[in-house]
Amino acid sequence: MEIAETSMDIVRQFVPDETLADRIRQKSVHSMGDIEFQHLLEFTGSDEIGADEDAPVRAGARAVLDEATIVTDITMSMAGITSRGHDCEKRKAIGNGAELAKETGMTRTAASVLELDRQGVYDGTIAVIGNAPTAAFALADCIENGTRPAAIVATPVGFVKAEESRQRIREVSEAYDVPAITNVGRRGGSGLAAALTNELIHVATDVRTGELDLDLGVETRADRGRGADESDGGEER
Asked: Is 30 a residue of the active site?
């Protein structure tokens, strides 16, 4: 814990610490070991407060507090998500839809997403995709057909359609007001997806303990943060 806290202290020297989205940016830098990765994250969709960049974080944290199911694309993504600090069921898509994959020739992950969606699993869930672009494409199709996850974390990695799949998630996120956290470029992966999901859990924990109020918008939260710095002698610091 001491090493992790020291590492995050270093990250905060390079990444802002004013908004909920900044917390996700910090976690992405910590996970990827790359200060510039903070600039590659995208926050889309809206919640009851609005369509600011904190919306996907608020929505994800509320889903954790509501004990929503966390559905990942593959085992590795699920394994990286903490089991502490929440009562959400964790399950993976992979392993479902084998017959559909065999009949159609689509990938196992895409078929798995479609099969779980057929069962109504994805409505109200935290949908996490860290590996398979085809899973992201399938989830986007499900959203177009009426499925509404509570929040999406999509960081599939690779050189074949990974970037395009995340763009597709952003498009349906904005079109149907489904809150989503994605990244641009070819990088990403299951470790990153798990880390960002864990931060949603940490935000929910801070709400539960009274340290955080999700009903504040980005500007209000930033103003309060600046006010606290000034009251502590921010200019000298």
From this structure: yes
Q: Which residues contact 228 (CB under 8 A, 6 or more apart)?
A: none
Determine the Cα–Cα distance for residues 189 and 187; give it in Å rounded to an integer.
7
- Write phi, then psi, for 209 (nearest 5 degrees): -90, 0
Q: What is the pLDDT of residues 94-145, one digit of tens each?
A: 989 888 998 888 999 999 999 999 999 999 999 999 999 999 999 999 999 9
Hey, what are 125's tokens? 């869930």
How do residues 163-176 score in pLDDT, each as one tens digit?
999 999 999 999 99
Specify the DSSP element, H or E, that contains 72.
Answer: strand 70-72
Catalytic residue, chosen from 30, 39, 86, 202, is 30
Cα–Cα distance between 50 and 152 in angstroms, integer?
Answer: 17
Token output for 61: 């944290």
